[in-house]
Protein 1
Amino acid sequence: MNPNTNAVPDALPDFRNLGVAARILVGVNLGAFVAAAIKATTFAQLVSEFLDIALVVEPTLIASLAVFSAASPWLARLPYLIGLATVAAVVLVFTAGAAFLRASVDAGPLGIVRTGAFALLATALLAGYFHLRNRAFSPALAEARLQALQARIRPHFLFNTLNAVLSLIRKDARRAEAAIEDLAELYRMVMADTKNLTTLARELDLTRQYLNLEQLRLGERLVVDWQTAEAPRDALVPPLLLQPLVENAVYHGIEPGMGPGTIVIAIRRDKDRVHLKLTNPYHPEHQHRQGNRIALANIRERLALHFDVEGVLESGVKGSSYEIRMTMPYRRAAPHSVSGERAAA
Amino acid sequence: MTTPPPLRVFLVDDEQPARERMREVLGDLAVELPNLVVGEAANGEEALTALPALAPDVVLVDIHMPQMNGMEFARHLAILETPPAVVFVTAHDQYAIEAFEVNALDYLLKPVRAARLAVALAKARATGAVSRDAVDRAAVQAGQVPRRFFSVGERGKILLVPVADVVYLKAELKYVTVRTADKEHLLEEALTSLEQEFAGIFVRIHRSCLVARRRIRGFERVTDEDGEGAGWAVILDGVPDKLPVSRRQWPTIKALASG
């Protein structure tokens, strides 16, 4: 579907992600601490050794992270090995620079080479760690996909919708045709590969088609308030992010009510973050929230897989409504993929 | 040869397209199995109000409905003197289907096929009303309890008393008195089965009495029934009655009040 939204194995980490930066900072400092601890025999020695190492390590670390973060989109486009070599080269240059500037204790060419070798080792270890982490998460991703499959569109919805379409065939063949087209489109998207990120535009289309079908059988009981005029349609999001939550909103918020109920879907961008808010009427006496918990856990997991600590999902009861809030980093899809997917939808 | 009168059918489904579809399929069957749709309703309460006067032979009822689900509807319907036969309809509800199978209740799957509907209607005409026990058991098995209402038969009509309005339930000889803030009704059910079904809502204070947990306002010391020393009585919201707590139940009730 979208080849440049990295398939999981063999990719450089996203240096702009807070979780990745934190892992690198902690990893390198831990290495420095271990190195100091090996040399030192007393606590005072440990502190001074660590500070000694830190004088070279910290400037290198901060400068490298700043450069990688700035060049992140460009780095992501390089083939994995070339990207890795570039990263190593940058680290080496910064290390040499820092070691040279400091040039006190073990100055001289040999000292700089030695420091550079340690820097390369640290880089290789971190690259190995991120590589293994990707691998480790691949089965998790496969499982998340499987769970997504299971948590997907309820049979309850499918059979009731088919029944509603049957009721239209004799008296309004055109609406019946449109409904079957919506249903086909919905299932096509739901059965598509969910590994890669998709665009928000596509998620919105999917959700709209789903709601058209629900409207067919629920009629005026279902009111949808779309607050998506400012939604960043080109934002990359995990697939099936919105539709399962809206399906839950209908199942738990609209169906248990006799009168009309409103679902609010509000999406906006705030600088480099995308905010989604979903609200539906809350029925305390309707207790079957198991399905909802599964869907929430599934989406939370996939947000974490794609955005690490920057993907957040919160949910809870607010007065007479149930509210879900999601926040994730704003990443843009390449322009062609947005238009391409819109045309396909 | 005289033709039998058409089968009188009543439809209950919260989705209007589903009711329309059922009318279409019944229409298609009209030659093979003469039938007449005498009425329809979008929810259980509406249906229980309208239905007794229309005297249907069969009710086709959806299980998944707001407020009162199809199984609760069938339980209330059973208090009529000559209740109609009931056929349940569901799109997909594994627990309900298993419960129907176990209790030999008939059901249809949506979308409903004309041939299958014809079989169900013929069977319903032959066997008549379903047994109250079977529906009660099926509701418990499918997890469709507790009910939202108590139902009381009143001159051929069904009166629904919201469970939330009830302050206490008291066993008398053959009946259970249902006390709300302003009325009393008689229920033909056993206190023990009510205690089980509404465990989260009512608590037993005495061999013959259950009170609504959230109506308990406090306790008062009173002289025991048999005059042997003092006991406790419950003071309740909405009614002046003070109900004695048995010695056996007192520890439970006291814990409830302090916790």
Protein 2
Amino acid sequence: MKFKYVAGLALIMAGTFLAFRGAVDANQSLVNAGIGGIFLGIVVLSFTTSDYIKVESFKRVVVPYSKFTAGIVESLNLKRKSIYIPPYNNMPDGGVFIPVNNDFDIDLGKIDENTFFLTDTGREREMGLVFRPLGADLSKEFQKYAEIDLLNSGLAAIDAISSVLRAMGLAKSVHTDINGDAIKIYIDGIRFREKCTDRCEQVACPICSSVLISLAKAFQELILVEEFEKTDRGVMISARKIGGVEKWM
Amino acid sequence: MDVDDIIVLTLSIWVFICTVIITAVDAYITLLLIGLLVVAEIGGYFINPETKRALNSVIYFMLFVFAVIVIKKILEVIG
């Protein structure tokens, strides 16, 4: 961080000196070199706004939260895989629903931000656990970085997700194979790959979660996670689009 | 290598090439502006919003300088 400030200021000072010297000696090339130095110095200083923490520290802070959420799912003995709900009136940041039964039904009208364990339903197949996606904030960052609204953006969202995750150093690339309603998401070079487990199918890490909730938002459909698989290059997520918010209201 | 580093490195190479090849200061500043615009457009997705705002300020300043250069050239032609 400090090195960038020093480098930027040094370039500006050297540039100013060269430009001044060039002007005194009537040497146009030296003036240009000076302007170039000042220009580069300002550009370098522009890139000093990010704060970094060590990866190990980050892991120690974030992993316990993921484990805590996974522990709740484990203790409730929920067997079904998760469903990512795109943002709608009741849940502006979207949500994750883990149904109690394999033969599930969701009534999105009964779910809101304050719902945690949905039991107040007439039918058992509507019961389940609801929580805000762990990657919801990361998903918002995708929109800020790419300056696009992911809502209904379709496949254009993949480029934004891939680029921003790469810029943040969280994954090298993200690409998808879409065949009808079936989606295969490949997250290559994902950080903390060693932490990926079978539990990710229910409670994904913030990185995978951000990709899934962003895609739910981009397609405006609920996404059912079917399988998480570690590959040589990263993680492959098999998922399925199961209809829009209106269908499940 | 970090994406930010790649962007700065690309601009540095561009500045070096321009410094070696160009002598006229107006053409030099115009080429610096073009380089910055291209990098900001291509790397837009990779640059965080705060940095993007700072870079935009540099772009606006250089566009102002470019406008001054254009007006000066027009006055030369008219004169």
